[in-house]
Specification:
Structural class: mainly beta
Number of strands: 12
Shape: globular
Oligomer: single chain
Order of helices and strands: EEEEEEEEEEEE
CATH superfamily: Rieske [2Fe-2S] iron-sulphur domain
Largest sheet: 5 strands, antiparallel
Strand order of the largest sheet: 5-6-7-8-9
CATH class: Mainly Beta
CATH architecture: 3-layer Sandwich
CATH topology: Rieske Iron-sulfur Protein
Bound molecules: FE2/S2 (inorganic) cluster
Length: 101
């Protein structure tokens, strides 16, 4: 398993999705208070960047067509149709955010 640094905590605005990368992989990061969520950055429905979406209460809504993703599980719902994105458990160390892949 490889640990990859993807962001600094100080650069993450509260409750606003931001794009990141790990190698060539697009990610989205959302900080919500002390929580940091990391997930695949591309919507499983129609390939929009999830960092363009909106976040509220643990859910990220894709700007494309409105799929709502649970940032804890990666489960997405679009009017009853199910989609899934991969979520990562970030490691926070010395103010830096890492994922292990
Ligand atoms: S591209 Fe995300 S909901 Fe369609």
């Amino acid at each position: 398993m490889v640990r990859i640094r993807i962001a600094s905590l100080k650069d993450l605005p509260d409750k606003r999705p931001v794009p990141a990368t790990a190698g060539t992989k697009a990610l989205v990061i959302v900080r919500d208070g002390d929580r940091v969520y990391v997930a695949d950055g591309i919507c499983a429905h129609g390939r929009w960047l999830l960092s363009l979406g909106t976040y509220e209460g643990g859910k990220l809504t894709c700007k494309g067509h409105g799929t709502v993703y649970d940032m804890e599980t990666g489960e997405g719902d679009l009017k009853g149709y199910r989609y899934r994105i991969r979520v990562y458990r970030p490691v926070i160390q010395d103010g830096e955010v890492y994922i292990e892949v």
